[in-house]
Structure formats: structure tokens, C-alpha cells
Design a protein that fits this description.
Structural class: alpha+beta
Number of helices: 3
Number of strands: 4
Radius of gyration: 38 Å
Shape: rod-shaped
CATH architecture of the largest domain: Single Sheet
Largest sheet: 4 strands, antiparallel
CATH class of the largest domain: Mainly Beta
Order of helices and strands: HHHEEEE
Strand content: 25-35%
Strand order of the largest sheet: 1-2-3-4
Helix content: 40-55%
Number of domains: 2
Low-confidence stretches: none
Distance between the termini: 89 Å
Mean pLDDT: 78
């Protein structure tokens, strides 16, 4: 443990250490030993042992591995989120396309495959009084990065264009 104040340590390092280095070249070994003993007494500090350094590295490595695992989870979550966003956009695009298609050109069933994302839709007649109303159901399927099936579906009721 260091009993001296930080200021004394810094002053000792700044003023005594250069003179010790200079004396290293100018004096013999005996003079150097005396100076080194004086510095050790003034600083009254010891360096880190090998064991302390190794324990510090182990703690640092555990923290680094924890951050690395969090990074992996974050990347896989971003990939899943991107795929989900693309499928929702595909559902909305399908709904808008079918709503803007004239009634005489509507197909009751459709299927598309786009980059491993499968889109199905089905149109049924849905009557409300005298008005012709259609019900559209859109399903989108895909596999996530672990090859688990995922899907989303939406059903909407609309009036077809004439």
C-alpha cells in the first residue's frame, strides 16, 4: 500500500527519476544502489505482482466475453427484426396492390416467393346487404437464422375497385 500522497509520488518521479537515470550512466553500481534505496523509501510503493496482473486479466477477459455474447445476441436480433419488417412490408404491399386492382381482374388466390419469403393470399366474397365486399387474407412465411418457421398473417375487408 502507498502511504504517501499522490503529489509527493509525482514530484519524486518527476524530479528524482531523471537524476537516477543520469547517475546510472555517470556513477558506479554502488552509487546507484544508494539512490534506488532512497527512491524506494520515498515512494514506499511496490509494483503489481504477476499474480495480481493475471487475476486482473482474468476479470477483464470475463467482462470481454460477456460483451461478446451480448454482441452475438444483438446481431441475431437485428437479423430477425429485419426479416420481420420485410414481411410486414410485403403484406402491406399485397393488400394495397389487391385493393387497387379492378374487381374483374382480381384473382381469388395467389402465391409468390421472394428471397426465401413466401407470400400467399386468398380473397373471399363477403356480402353486407346489397354492397359487394371482399375479404382478403394474406399469409407470409419464412425461416429464421435457426431454420425455425415464422409467419405473419393479416385479414382485411375492402371494397374492390369497379
Amino acid at each position: 500500500m502507498c502511504d504517501n500522497k499522490i503529489g509527493i509520488i509525482l514530484v519524486s518521479i518527476i524530479y528524482i527519476w531523471p537524476s537516477v537515470c543520469f547517475k546510472l550512466t555517470m556513477e558506479n553500481q554502488k552509487g546507484l544502489d544508494v539512490d534506488m534505496q532512497r527512491i524506494r523509501k520515498k515512494l514506499d510503493c511496490r509494483g503489481f505482482t504477476l499474480l495480481e496482473v493475471m487475476i486482473g486479466l482474468v476479470i477483464f477477459s470475463i467482462g470481454l466475453l460477456t460483451l461478446l455474447s451480448m454482441l452475438v445476441v444483438s446481431i441475431s436480433g437485428n437479423a430477425w427484426s429485419e426479416k420481420t419488417t420485410r414481411t410486414v412490408q410485403m403484406v402491406r404491399q399485397t393488400i394495397e396492390t389487391i385493393k387497387n386492382t379492378p374487381e374483374n381482374q382480381l384473382e381469388n388466390y395467389g402465391y409468390e416467393d421472394e428471397d426465401g419469403i413466401f407470400r400467399h393470399w386468398y380473397i373471399q366474397d363477403f356480402y353486407e346487404g346489397q354492397t359487394s365486399v371482399k375479404m382478403l387474407t394474406v399469409w407470409v412465411y419464412w425461416n429464421d437464422e435457426f431454420n425455425r418457421p415464422q409467419y405473419t398473417s393479416t385479414t382485411t375487408i375492402f371494397h374492390p375497385k369497379q
